[in-house]
């Protein structure tokens, strides 16, 4: 069929089954927006900042597992999108971002709103394209979606010069892709898998180390089965919360800088690490030379470059976690699960000694309490997004995640301002779920213009602001490591949160007591409107346990002990 | 410990001929802090691929990362870390015509080359040899007051 390049872009988006596109128009992309106006195949959401558009597409992708799509114009539209690309890149999120570019003849002349988009985005995309001709546009679009979702997923940028969106040509959307230089490995090497299984059977203190790759691969059910069948205890990374489910008796918790005692001790004492889709990030390992010092390491990763990058691996398996675990399971028939009982008992004892705890208060709301309370009130029905800081760590520690894709946060890049737009994307994908952005009084302001977007399009997400009047996480480091010099972290000067939300068409709540908290949550769900819930919390609360940066995992600063009977799982 | 010893290494990267592919390869080296000692690139005859030869140095661990990271680039088809290779580099050198032409000619002949151009004031010589010998040639050539020496970078082929 004959059509313009702009129409081809829309047709490709429709053909890929994308229902919602997030974006912001401008000169170089106007032709595409003209076609968006005419079509009915997908909805377009006008965010109020391009960064938010990319985060929203990212939230949509994380919630669904499908490719998210964002659209921006050239120059400043694109540069505003870069943080979004980098955020998705670090967490391997499948996105296609389409940017307008100045007309082909102007490229290289410092034209109005010209910037080298492929040059800038090269280190923060899985791949990028500058479209050279109308003829290659359908193929490039097809490849962009394919590359974004296959192998180790990631964001792909398609930069389209304006003249190519105007030109008219024949459109046939390819139904398959053949890139001879790009063939991801899905099936793990059978010999290596066999050896890894043998190692699991002969270990004394094995440990499942579960990373975000399990979520990306949709392998949670298989990994649950693996844990169940072997009775091997497990730890999750920040990106893997929800994989095993909070009620799973084999789950010790989250490991790393803010991991719980039992998880970090397990990693320090294990004799066999079974790493599934995790990448040994420095926030997880602490001091590398002390990390899993006594263990052999099985490393399953779809990205060969992750294997052996930081730690030496004894059983490298390049492949998709789904495929590899599928191959492992039958070979584990009849595994002696009693073998690991002593080990499980030691770890249970560690958890009894130093459970994940905090000292509650009747005078002031503790942030951890607020998160636990959300878990009790909404629990399974919620999708939780978050920003970056103390609130993010408390959410990861204290919310009872029971399924993958319930927890959406920027782990790799740690982008403040991610949570609110990501919540919009998640809510568009799952309108029937309660979507809550657990955020801080610092982070929320970094994309607060999205109040207007949410109000206009009636996307009712709850922004739960755990308000400590501080850039709390930085303040915590200043307390511990900078002799309490609170350089530029005091946020005593604050907006009127309620008025701010209302001015933009949302609602606001000021909450200082537990009763008000419950009432506000109930009301916010009933009102079905975007809201800012300003919850005043204890100012100087710290995130604990904490492994000081560069320290060994077993050297944790621990929370004060509390005498409350621990509920059994 | 062998894995942590820094060594000179040569790799060949076979890539699709795309406008930005060289930028992707060099940006990867720059962004991840790897060294490039020399780099050559040319199309492979009768194909839509190009051959990039990179001389670099690093430990075995770093080399493994370089190889894997290169392989992750979408237009990269193959990465060969050379072990048993034939390695050559070409050099062009310009000498004043006043120098002893026959001596220069003999020197170049000893390094698989010769005088390739004679002008009014300058002569141009070419040699092609192993990188180590190229170093010797450049040292020896100093005697004849070269005004310019251009090295081509290594190309290598696995034996
Ligand atoms: C865009 C960006 N800028 C700076 C930082 C560094 N940073 C990490 S946490 C943090 C404080 C966040 O404050 P707030 O949102 O109030 O969360 P809290 O820690 O108080 O819960 C800062 C500034 C970051 N992660 N992202
Ligand atoms: Mg704060």
Chemical compounds bound to the protein? thiamine diphosphate, magnesium ion
The number of distinct β-strands of chain B equals 8
- Summed over residues and divided by their number, the pLDDT of chain A gives a mean of 97
The CATH topology of the largest domain in chain A, please?
Rossmann fold
- Terminus-to-terminus distance of chain A: 60 Å
Total discrete domains of chain A: 3
- Count up the helices of chain B: 4
Per CATH, the superfamily of the largest domain in chain A is Thiamin diphosphate (ThDP)-binding fold, Pyr/PP domains
Q: Report mean pLDDT of chain B, rounded to a whole number.
A: 94
Structural class of chain A: alpha/beta
Shape of chain B: elongated
Structure report:
The complex is a heterodimer of chains A (569) and B (159). With 569 residues, chain A is an alpha/beta fold. Chain A has three domains: 2-170, Thiamin diphosphate (ThDP)-binding fold, Pyr/PP domains (Rossmann fold); 190-353, TPP-binding domain (Rossmann fold); 367-536, Thiamin diphosphate (ThDP)-binding fold, Pyr/PP domains (Rossmann fold), CATH 3.40.50.970. Chain A is built from 21 helices and 20 strands. In chain A, strands 3-2-4-5-7-6 form a six-stranded parallel sheet, sandwiched between helices. In chain A, strands 11-10-9-12-13-14 form a six-stranded parallel sheet, sandwiched between helices. In chain A, β15, α16 (390-398) and β16 (407-408) form a beta-alpha-beta unit. In chain A, 56% of the residues are buried. Chain B is built from four helices and eight strands; from the N terminus they run βαββαββαββαβ. In chain B, a hairpin with a 3-residue loop joins β6 and β7. The relative contact order of chain B is 0.20. The model of chain B has no long low-confidence stretch (mean pLDDT 94). Chain B has two domains: 2-83, Alpha-Beta Plaits (2-Layer Sandwich); 86-158, ACT-like. Chain A, domain 2 (Alpha-Beta Plaits, 2-Layer Sandwich). Chain B is an alpha+beta fold. The chains are: A alpha/beta (569), B alpha+beta (159). The A-B interface holds A 118-119, 122-123, 126-127, 130, 132, 147, 179-182, 303-305, 308-309 and B 15-16, 19-20, 23-24, 27, 31, 61, 64-65, 68-69, 71-72, 74-77. Bound molecules: thiamine diphosphate and magnesium ion. The site of thiamine diphosphate has 20 residues of chain A, from α16 and α19.
């Amino acid at each position: 069929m004959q059509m313009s390049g702009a129409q081809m872009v829309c047709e490709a988006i429709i053909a890929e089954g994308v229902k919602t596109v997030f974006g912001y128009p401008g000169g170089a992309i106007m032709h595409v927006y003209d076609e968006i106006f005419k079509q009915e195949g997908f909805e377009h959401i006008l965010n109020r900042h391009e960064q938010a558009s990319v985060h929203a597409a990212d939230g949509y992708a994380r919630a669904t597992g499908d490719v998210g799509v964002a659209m921006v114009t050239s120059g400043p539209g694109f540069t505003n999108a870069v943080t979004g690309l980098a955020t998705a890149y670090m967490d391997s999120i499948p996105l296609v971002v389409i940017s307008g570019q100045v007309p082909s003849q102007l490229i290289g002349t410092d034209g109005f709103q010209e910037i080298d988009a492929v040059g800038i985005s090269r280190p923060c995309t899985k791949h990028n394209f500058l479209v050279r001709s109308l003829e290659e546009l359908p193929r490039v679009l097809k490849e962009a979606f394919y590359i974004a979702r296959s192998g180790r997923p990631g964001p792909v940028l398609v930069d389209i010069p304006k003249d190519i969106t105007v030109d008219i040509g024949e459109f046939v959307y390819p139904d398959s892709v053949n890139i001879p230089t790009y063939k991801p490995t899905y099936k793990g090497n059978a010999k290596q898998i066999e050896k890894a299984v043998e190692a699991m059977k002969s270990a004394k203190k094995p440990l499942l180390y579960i990373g975000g790759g399990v979520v990306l691969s949709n392998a949670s059910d298989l990994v649950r089965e693996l844990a169940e069948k072997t009775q091997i205890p497990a730890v999750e990374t920040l990106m893997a919360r929800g994989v095993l489910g909070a009620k799973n008796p084999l789950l010790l918790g989250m490991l790393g800088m803010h991991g719980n005692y039992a998880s970090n001790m397990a990693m320090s004492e294990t004799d066999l690490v079974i790493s599934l889709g995790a990448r040994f990030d420095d926030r997880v390992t602490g001091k590398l030379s002390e990390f899993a010092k006594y263990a052999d390491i099985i490393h399953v990763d779809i990205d060969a470059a992750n294997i052996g990058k930081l730690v030496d691996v004894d059983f490298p398996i390049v492949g998709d976690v789904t495929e590899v675990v599928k191959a492992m399971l039958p070979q584990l028939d009849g595994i002696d699960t009693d073998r690991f009982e002593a080990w499980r008992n030691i770890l249970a004892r560690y958890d009894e000694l130093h459970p994940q705890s905090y000292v509650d208060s009747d005078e002031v709301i503790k942030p951890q309490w607020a998160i636990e309370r959300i878990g009790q009130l909404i629990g399974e029905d919620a999708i939780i997004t978050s920003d970056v800081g103390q609130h993010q760590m408390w959410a990861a520690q204290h919310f009872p995640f029971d399924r993958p894709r319930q927890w959406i946060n920027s782990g790799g890049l740690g982008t403040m301002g991610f949570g609110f737009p990501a919540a919009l994307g998640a809510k568009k994908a799952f309108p029937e779920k309660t979507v809550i952005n657990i955020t801080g009084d610092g982070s929320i302001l970094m994309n607060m213009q999205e109040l207007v977007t949410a109000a206009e399009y009636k996307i009712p997400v709850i922004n739960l602001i755990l308000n400590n009047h501080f850039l709390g996480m930085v303040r915590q480091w200043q307390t511990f490591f900078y002799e309490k010099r609170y350089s530029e972290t005091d946020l005593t000067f604050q907006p009127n949160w309620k008025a701010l939300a209302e001015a933009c068409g949302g609602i606001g709540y000021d909450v200082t007591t537990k009763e008000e908290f419950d009432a506000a949550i109930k009301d916010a769900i009933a009102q079905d409107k975007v809201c800012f819930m300003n919850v005043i919390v204890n100012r100087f609360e710290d995130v604990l346990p904490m492994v000081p940066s560069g320290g060994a995992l077993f050297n944790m600063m621990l929370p004060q002990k509390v005498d409350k009977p621990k509920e059994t799982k | 410990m062998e894995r942590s010893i820094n060594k000179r290494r040569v790799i060949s990267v076979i890539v699709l001929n795309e406008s930005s592919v060289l930028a992707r390869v060099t940006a990867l080296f720059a962004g991840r802090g790897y060294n490039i000692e020399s780099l050559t690139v040319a199309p492979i005859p009768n194909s839509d691929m190009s051959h990039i030869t990179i001389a670099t140095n690093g430990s075995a661990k770093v080399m493994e990362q370089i190889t894997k990271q290169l392989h992750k680039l979408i237009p990269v088809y193959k990465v060969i870390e050379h072990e048993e290779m034939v390695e050559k580099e070409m050099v062009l050198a310009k000498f004043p015509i006043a120098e002893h032409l026959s001596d220069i000619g003999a020197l170049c002949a000893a390094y698989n080359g010769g005088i390739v151009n004679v002008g009014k004031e300058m002569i141009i010589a070419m040699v092609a040899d192993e990188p180590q010998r190229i170093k010797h040639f450049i040292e020896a050539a100093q005697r004849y007051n070269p005004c310019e020496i251009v090295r081509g970078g290594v190309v290598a082929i696995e034996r």
